[in-house]
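Troubleshooting log. The previous run stalled partway through. Resubmitting the same two chains, unchanged.
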Amino acid sequence: MFELSTNVASPQQLRRGDFSAYDALYLGEFSCLSYPNNFCAHPEFLADAVAQVHEMGKKAYLRLFAVPSNHDLPTVRNVIKTALGLPFDGFEVHNLGLLQMLKEMGNTKPIHLGVFGNLYTDATARVVKDYGVTRVYPNPELSLDEAIYIRDNTPIDVLIPVHGKIPLVVAETCFIHENSGGLPGEDCKFKCSQEHWLTRASGDWSLKDTGCMTLSGADLCMLEHVDKLAAAKLNAFYVQSHGESPDYIATVGRIYRDAFSRAFAGVAEGDVGPQLEQLAGLAKMGLCNGYYFGDAGRRYVGRA
Amino acid sequence: MSAPALLAPGGTLEMARVAVDEGADIVYVGPLGWSRRPYESEMTDEDIRAAIAYARENGRQVRVVLNTFPSPFEMDDFARKVELYAAWGASGFIVTDPGAIRLIRGLVPDTLIHVSIGSGVTNSWDAEFYREIGADVIILPYRWGEEEIAETRCVSGIGLEVFLFETVQTGKICPGKCIMSSYLKFREWLDIEGKATSGSANRGAKECYRVCQTNWEFSSEDDDPVKLKLRRDARLMLEQLPAFIELGVECFKISGRERPVPMIRDLVRFYRKALDGIAAGQTDMSVYVDELATLRERWTVEKRKRVNVLMDRADHYADAAPTLAVAQ
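Second attempt completed without errors. Output:
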């Protein structure tokens, strides 16, 4: 009926987390190969991980590193080679060169184009479809109407993020490492395990920084629009949870699982005030609706 | 080895003509709402036609920059623009969206397609992907040096283009992988030619507010906040040119459609001289050291001025409509 997914970076997070609300897990932290025990960089963890996810009755998609340099390609190739021999349900690719590599390596698994794949048009969706892409995560700047248009006119499956911080930037260098005295090439001290924020007081702007990635300060929240998403026959939804606590992942998942279950059963959504309050309590910098309704990403539109 | 081409910006018709006069082989120009620049650095169709005519009269070429990520609803307009400029004699296009690249190749089979920096290329396999879908030339990431250029040459047969500036290896340098500006500020535009756009510079809505180049406070749970910019200034490049040419770089690009015309005039003159010198056997670039230092200083000053203008717009954009566009 619908698929609710989220992301898990490492074996430790997979063991500790409560993912009962989710149907599928994207394994790996795509922005940083140095992230501790990242599935994107450690082929030795993949067999156990995919078995564990399947035992939970969920699909397991393997994320590939989003910004591989030439220097990183042997690592990525090694991960792909291992994964091709395992029962993953698909790959998530952000880098178009890796589409080329997967094709050359004879991949037949479904490919999902990730958020930094820069999917803006149905014309591009048709191009990547020729490389085996079956699902696309439209660039966050697109409105809901544009995402639906791409789905219908390609045609292709679209992944709709419904909650969590919006990925805004991915870079090839780590901002936290550089600004905590780290030198290029020096071992990472994993200071990204603490929260880092960028703020600009004069403009009332805030962003969350995870080192190689910058996320929105506010949490995207589509709880008030679940009926609309179901009515549009969208059916793949995603909670972005990088850097969030196990409690956040479990709570957000449960709220959306309930909401989508009701919506797909034809039950009116009703008052979601208490759940919205709970979600707002988990969001340090408030909630937003992203770009879905044709406004700046940080605005919260609500049902009005 | 054929001589590489010098690409120069045509932010205005005047700038395009000056670039041709100073020796640019190719001038690139962007139509209103389609080239990720503010209104004053893009051109009307009438001016683009005049720029193409002027370049052709002087034996030079014009590439039209259509490097926004269009809305899926805009693709018909995009196609009409491509056919229009090709019919006027534009020799090629600078494009970001893969679907748009394939579309152009179908519409104008013999045109030249450059992959824009906004495509976010990070490795040699990206280059091969773009070659396979129909592109002819790819602009290489700012950070790349000789090793990456050589490797890309091996992996892909695509033509190579390099910006004539270099950037330090730190900070958030992520062309094509950044939507910070539109997360923070959003604006709707209706150009005088009738193109309505809402959203970010990536999509044609004029201004990237260069939020990465202004001051932020960076804080963690344990440490005191520090004030910093998210990236550092790039600087003009010269020393690498002989080696890059030897490695097969076909195009060198001066950026700066937003800079003053005299700055572009002097840059085109300088790099024309340097490239001609290399073609004549000159490999010691130290002979240009004083001239380069002066240009670097001017470049940095002008860049900072520009960032201040854009950040001021971000703070006050509702105050007044610019002359060539109407804020909605």
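Takeaways: Chain A touches chain B through 68 residues (CB under 8 Å). Chain A has a mean pLDDT of 94.
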